[in-house]
Amino acid sequence: MKAMQFARTGTPDVLHLADVPEPHAGRGQVRIAVRAAGVNPVDWKIRGGSTLGAVPVPLPSVPGLEAAGIIDEVGPGVEGVRPGDAVFGATERAAAEFAVLTHWAVKPEGMSFAEAAGIPMAAETAQRGLSLLQVGTGDTLLVNGAAGGVGVAAVQLALARGAEVVGTASAANQEFLASLGARATTYGTGLADRVRALVPRGVNRALDVAGSGVIPELVRLTGSPDRVVSIGDATATGHGVRFTTGAEGRFFSALGLAASLASGGRFTMPVAQTWPLDQLAEAHRFSEGGHVRGKLVVVLD
Ligand SMILES: NC(=O)c1ccc[n+]([C@@H]2O[C@H](COP(=O)([O-])OP(=O)(O)OC[C@H]3O[C@@H](n4cnc5c(N)ncnc54)[C@H](OP(=O)(O)O)[C@@H]3O)[C@@H](O)[C@H]2O)c1
Question: No. of H helices and E strands in the chain?
Fold first, then answer.
């Protein structure tokens, strides 16, 4: 099958189209004919040579951790889906004609494959952060970095939990955050003052998605390091704040939750831009720019 892969780590130029062996569904897995694959910052971090504290990536490597498509193989022990079903889910080699999913949900009928492909990593990570923070009715959550994939998911999943949400984004994304149901403000100098002006009674939970060096400010705003979680700033632990990587457990039930909320019109994952599979390098370059609204996706015919 055709796949994008890299045989050495480096710039986006190391990505190239290759013929690689097809994967097959093992126990508890399904295989899909991939229609779309989501692009995440971790993809270019790994491609660039970062091991993110884990073991080095085996080379050659097919990037991508999420995809949507049509099931064509169902592994032993799998119930509830069959060949022909449209699903989206988590994988380890998404940028390819076929991918094996370890966790998945049925794609809502009205949702495009591109939108569905952008959901798994964002929804899982957001749900993990919200669960660690025990966000619920009566809480006011600040999401720092609310306009990207994880932020968009966090805003909507927190609203679904009954919380009020304040999100930070650049000036260009203020209306976008408001359209998701968040109260929006800009990041940068004076953040705490702007948040206090927006919510005079204050915020009592904060999820740091951007990892932009604001942990002390978030602790001051919420009143306690216990009320802050970061997914993007490893120095958070030095302030007594939890930094979650997923090593402590993943929240893949978020995929089904996102699908069900989307069917009810309460969850969406806007796709900022798509590219054909063989232009994955362009998607990585865009993602590395750090200003994605929603998700970036590569699509297959
Ligand atoms: N620890 C984990 O388990 C885990 C899981 C998933 C992702 N991550 C990490 O979390 C980060 C975010 O992931 P993502 O998928 O949401 O990325 P993304 O889709 O690329 O989103 C980037 C967003 O960050 C915003 N941003 C840029 N500079 C900012 C700043 N100084 N303050 C606040 N927001 C800012 C941008 O908004 P504007 O365009 O409006 O500036 C953009 O929407 C990445 O570093 C990723 O590797 C960690």
Answer: 9, 15
Lowest mean pLDDT among 122-126, 162-166, 244-248: 244-248
Q: Which of the 8 DSSP states describes residue 172?
A: G
Tokens 């990587």, residue located: 245
Task: Show the 3-state SS of 90-111.
Answer: ECCCCCECEEEECEEEECCCCC
CA of 284 to the centre of ligand 1 (A): 14
The contacts of residue 196 (CB under 8 Å, 6+ apart) are 202, 221
Pocket residue to mutate for ligand 1, from 132, 185, 209, most atoms within 8 A of Cβ: 209
Residue closest to 73 by CA, chosen among 137, 4, 121, 1: 1
Atom of ligand 1 lying closest to residue 147 CA: 43
Domain range list for the chain: 2-119+269-299, 125-243
- Yes or no: is domain 125-243 CATH 3.40.50.720? yes
The CATH code that applies to domain 2-119+269-299 is 3.90.180.10
Closest ligand 1 atom to residue 121 Cα is: 6
The SS3 assignment for 170 reads: coil
At 35 the three-state DSSP class reads: strand
Q: How far apart are CA 232 and CA 193, in angstroms?
A: 23
Does the structure show a pLDDT above 70 at 5?
A: yes
Q: Which distant-in-sequence residues (6+ apart) come within 8 Å of 78 by Cβ?
A: 25, 28, 29, 30
Q: What is the pLDDT of residues 11-60, one digit of tens each?
A: 999 999 999 999 999 999 999 999 999 999 999 999 999 876 667 788 99
